[in-house]
Known about the structure:
mainly beta, four-stranded antiparallel beta sheet, 26 strands, globular
Amino acid sequence: MKQRLPIALLIPAALAAAIFAGAAASSAAFTSDSCGTSGSGADGGSGTFGSGTECPPPPPPPYPTVPDRLYGVAGAASNDVWAVGLEPTSSLIMHWDGSSWTTSFTEPIGYFRAVSAPATNDVWAVGGTKWFGGSQTLAEHWNGTSWTQVTTPTPGSGVLNGVAATSASNAWAVGFVGPGLGTPASATEPLIDHWDGSNWTEQTFADPADGGQFAATAAISADDAWAVGQTGSVSEGTGQTSMIYHWDGSSWTRVPSPNAAGSSNMLSGVTAISADDVWAVGQTLASDGQDKSLTMHWNGSTWTIVSSPNPTGDTGLQAVAGASANDVWAVGLTNPTHCSSGGPKCDTIAMHWDGSAWTVVPAANPAHSYLNALLGIAVINGDSHDVWAVGTTDYESTLFTHWDGTNWH
């Protein structure tokens, strides 16, 4: 049975080596083609670099050539942004300092699915320790100087898919109790952990009868947080329904949420702009066998489905972030039910909410063999001109895209 969310197997180390070898070959080809021995210079002149043996250094790539994928992004300032995911044989955390992305953490402890950065010295990255089989929940904390692994409770086996922190003493991490992401599971139980400034503790709440998982969380304050996901199985089959829980300062309770007319409904992302302005996004599997984008809005009293575009007729949304009530972004990919099976390519997609409607905005879509996907998005400090979205190209290289207020780059 096909896996709706395109989570590919880990890239083998040999393939990672081939990726780096390909990058090196590209640099060598640039040097040879630019220099030659014809006597004309690389600058178009009569010999600035030509007719000699020395060549100019190749230009740097537009973004780091790091293998594999990024799942989440968050930042406390325009020059302090974090992105998390995995490499073929290790976890991956990268940092933007205002001018370039660099690798900050690559220990072989598992993989990261989400990141939250309420302050420059207070950043959380969460995920799981194993892709296949039994996995422990995983949390790393940045204190402004270094990353430290912090113990999290794992009832059996589990993964943390989302994290949201409002202060040094209040953070939520959500996911599920079940095997690692690479192992199909017929049933799981949703999981919520809380950080009180000293420890992570598992929370109690009424589970849905058929189980499920949380994919993402958002928090406004210590007494106002949301967790979204789906009931039913994690990676196989149909029958899933949207699942939304709310924290009111004393307990987590399930809030009624609508479902589109499809055989399954999955929520992958959530953003909370205010107490009465919350968005959740995902996809529904329609009767034509293709995914349709799914966007839901909370107005303070009810969740409702809001019409959203499907430019190729097959669209999956993975993440959402908002700067204000009339400035919200949702990202994901087109053709998610086809691109891994010889069908049309998966391309990035970005949608914008202007206060009245969702519209597709052309997204950065670099050259790829079969897949470009945006899996995480963040608006930095509420600045509508500073939005980062991250993901993967062919599950072989990380993908960074930036919105500057006019275009995605």
